[in-house]
Structures are given as C-alpha cells and as structure tokens.
Amino acid sequence: MPELPEVETVVRALNASLPGKTVSAVCSMGKLRLPFDAGDLTRRLAGRKILGVRRRAKYILVDFPGQLALLAHLGMTGRFRLETTGTPGQKHDRVAFLFEDGSELRYSDARRFGFIKLACLPRPGGFPGDLERLGPEPLERSFTGDVLLASAAGRKAPVKTFIMDQKIVVGVGNIYASEALYGAGINPARPAGLLSPAEWRRLAAEIKGVLRRAIRKGGSTIRSYQTVAGTEGGFQRSLRVYGKTGGECPRCGGRIESTRLGGRSTFFCPGCQV
DNA sequence: ATATTCCCCTGGAAGC
DNA sequence: TGCTTCCAGGGGAATA
Q: Can you give the distance from the CA of residue A84 to the C1' of nucleotide C10 in angstroms?
C-alpha cells in the first residue's frame, strides 16, 4: 500500500486538478473500514468548492470552506481516479464524488482497509483531532536523528518496528523502513534504545533521502498502487533490498536475507547491516 | 507505557 | 486446470 511517497504523489495530482471544483453529490457503492453515509456527505458538501488538497502522514485532506475537510486514508489498496461522469465504474469502486463541471472523483479499494470521513478543523489549515497523536513529518527540517534518539530512550522494540510506529515518525511503512535501514547500514532487528547518536543521524538522513527520491519517481508500485492517472510509480526499480531475498547486495556482494519483525516481512543484508 | 499478536478484507501468486 | 495455502505497502484493538 501507499506509504508517504505514494500518498504524496496522489495528493500532488489531486491538488493539480480538484481545487475550484464544486461538489454536486456523493454516491456510495460499497462499504469501507469506517461506515460512511453518502447522503450525509452530499448534504454537507453539495455546493461547496474544493479549496485544496493536503497530506499529513499517510492521510489525505481535501479542504472545503468553513473549516470542513474530507479526511481519507488509502489503507492498503485505496486509489483515487478522476473521470468523466458516465464512465463505467470498476469492480472495486466504493465512493464517487460528482462535480458540477461533469467530472467525477472515484475512490476504489479492493481490500476496504481505507476510509473517508468528514472532519471539522479547529482552525483553517489545521488538522482534525483524529490526527493529533501522530509523530513528526520526516521531511521537515526539524526532524533529525536527535529527535529519534530522544524518543528511542529505553525502547526495546526492533529499530525497524520502531520507525514504522506513526507516533514516532509518520509516513515510513514496510518498504521504506527496510530501504532506509539498509542505506544507514543498521540491522533492522537491533533494539531501538541501543542505537548510537551517530546511527540515528544516519538513519534520519536515509529516511529523508529515500522518501525524497521515491517522491521524485512517483512512488513504488509493488502490487496494487497506482497514481491518480492510473499509471505505475517508478521507484520500485530503485529498491535495493525490499523483495530481493537471495539477491546480491549492491554494496558488499553478499546475499539479501528476509526475516519477520513485528509480523511484517523485513529485508536486509547481514553483511553490511550490523 | 510498551511490546506482541491478531484481525479487518480481497486478490494474486505459488505450490501441489 | 483446479484447489489450497500463503502473502500483501496500514492501522487499530485486544492481550500480556
């Protein structure tokens, strides 16, 4: 599913085409993780114009006037497509937002792990209460190795599980956690509380680097992820360890291994990740 | 509070 | 070909 680079790619595409469109109706074609009421959404959004689209962590916010925002999460298989009204639907379409100009935004989600809901913002440009507990954005300047070092004190969880915890830092999922740890030369099973300040600085830098490079390529398509235009991302070709079990380590020539941490498959090179 | 496990749901790939 | 099993990028609840 979408991690930060994939969500960012979707948000940029939506932000290029949705602002200025006025909602005429919202239709439901199926259930999602959270129940939603299309009739209620229609009543509250019809006639309202989209101001912009933003991202926080892996959440998408579509802003409307009156400190109202549509909050969406893509889960594992969520996709947005922009179509013309009348275009035949697809198998897993769950929600359609109809606009007054005859275009239509469809949300499809095979596994239904995603959700959409309407949220009130505490102030314009702010975030709904649902997002209060999230950790820092990794691409902000203020996110540094020292921030990670401070929150890792005494923590015994594997460093990979730790950096995937959205209360510690947002946006890092299973793919980019393995990739960042590889870049930093840190074994993913090490207890978070035992990393040195220098290792945290390297890891923070690698997290920023891999996320930025992935955004530049439009994200990674491993299985289902697609951009709003229905195309694949490009960063899967740049992955160095994720999904490469048995392959050759580009750095030391050793064999990439896989293991399981926190119930998630994890890829690393035992030769150069110590 | 933190760590671990399980579960939500569906489809695709691999194994037999 | 067809059936079975396993696995999947997230996140939240339940459990020690």
A: 30
Active site residues of A: 2-3, 58, 264
Nearest alpha-carbon partner for A161 in A246, A241, A248, A259? A259
Model confidence pLDDT, tens digit, residues A226-257 = 888 888 889 999 999 999 999 999 999 999 99
> Measuring CA to CA, how many Å separate A43 from each of A48, A68, A73, A252, A259?
10, 13, 22, 60, 49
Distance C3 C1' – A20 CA (angstroms): 52
CA of A44 to C1' of B7 (A): 33
pTM over 0.90: yes
Q: Is A113's CB less than 7 Å from nucleic acid strand B?
A: yes
Q: Is A69 left (phi over 0), alpha (psi -120 to 50) or beta?
A: beta
Q: Domain residue spans in chain A?
A: 4-131, 145-268
Q: Give domain A4-131's CATH number out of 3.40.50.970, 3.20.190.10, 3.40.50.300, 3.30.70.260.
A: 3.20.190.10
| Residue A36 Cβ < 7 Å to strand C | no
Say which CATH topology domain A145-268 has. Helicase, Ruva Protein; domain 3 (1.10.8)
Grouped pLDDT means (10 residues each) for chain A, 274 residues: 93 97 95 92 97 97 97 96 90 96 96 96 93 95 97 96 97 97 97 97 98 95 84 92 94 94 95 95
Q: Is the distance between the Cβ of A13 and the closest atom of strand B smaller than 7 Å?
A: no
